[in-house]
Amino acid sequence: MNAVIVAARRTAVAPRGGAFARIEPHDLASRVIEEVLADAGLAPDAVEDVILGNALYGGGNPARRAALAAGIRETVPALTVDSQCCAGLDAILLAAERINAGAADVIVAGGVESFSRAPIRQRRPREPGEAPLAYDRPPFTPWPERDPDMIPAAAVLAAELGISRAAQEAFAVESHLKGRGGSATGEIVAVEGLARDAFTRALTPAIAARLKSLAGEGAHAVTAATVAVEADAAAVVLVVSERRLEGLGAPGRPLRILAGARRGGDPTRPGLAPIEAAKAALERAGHAAGGLAAAEIMEAFAVQAMACIDGIGLDRACVNRSGGALSRGHPIGASGAILMVRLWHELQREAGGSAGLAAIAAAGGLGSALVGEV
Hints:
By secondary structure, this protein is of the alpha/beta class. Helix content is 31%, strand content 22%. It has a domain at 3-118 and 229-373: Thiolase/Chalcone synthase (Peroxisomal Thiolase, Chain A, domain 1, 3-Layer(aba) Sandwich), CATH 3.40.47. The strands form 3 sheets. Strands 1, 2, 3, 4, 5, 8, 11, 12, 13, 14 and 15 form an 11-stranded mixed beta sheet that branches. A two-stranded antiparallel ribbon has the order 6-7. The mean pLDDT is 96. Belongs to the thiolase-like superfamily. Thiolase family. One of its GO terms (molecular function) is acetyl-CoA C-acyltransferase activity.
């Protein structure tokens, strides 16, 4: 593979109704696109394609709106990908595949999401006189009995794997601790004056223990401490071909995309889907899980992250070294792209030849993973 990430930026992550509550998704994304291009010393005219993940906007093409708002030429196509939580990482994988196929040399890719600006969803009546039916999410399988809501599914997984509430809470406390101590220098584009992830806090075991169960019983319950909050954010990387590297004013060392993989799994156990995707990507890249310098694993739920870390065989010391989604929040379509931005910056601190992994799960039993090397 010859696709290379030369710049990576994101907004801070703001909980729903917070600092970004009035900003439309394309405006969030366009500001990050502008910064990524400036980092690489490229004019908007150099971009050949824009691919962004988004899950909640309710139609249209937010990638196209973001591209135009960022000053990219009208003749440049734009594509919005919706694979729910995997969408931001899938957009980057798709960009890499297009680069490797020779279809383009410069692609802007990533994800954007706004829970705050998401449309209110209603289904049209089937019969005259019926009222519209409001709904929170679409179905992810054709079988209602195999299409669980994510929080109950996490509680079931915790009970099946024997991952206790206390262990989940300890994982969440550590995520906040790492988030408070982590460095976001050169990573976050300030929007509306917000230049740090707003949700990260001094979570303690005592505070976590006082929270009521959201799902599950007793020893394996899932609580607000062990579930990532709904949030708004955008994250973008610049993917180029090796032949386009010369002359770029990139802010760090290029990250070569060694391999990527997407896998499907049991829709009733969606949190486990990234395990096989990560294993496939690592095998293609020729790297062992234990030899990675850094890994960014999605923390939609503490139990899901813990299961993936163990299932992939990762050293916990290399995982989410500056905190994860439990301490930031989960802007669905942007989350996978945030993992890649984080991985790019984490690997900048490592020696040459260091490899890293990003992996994420999605509703319906989907998993995506990418292995890169600086």
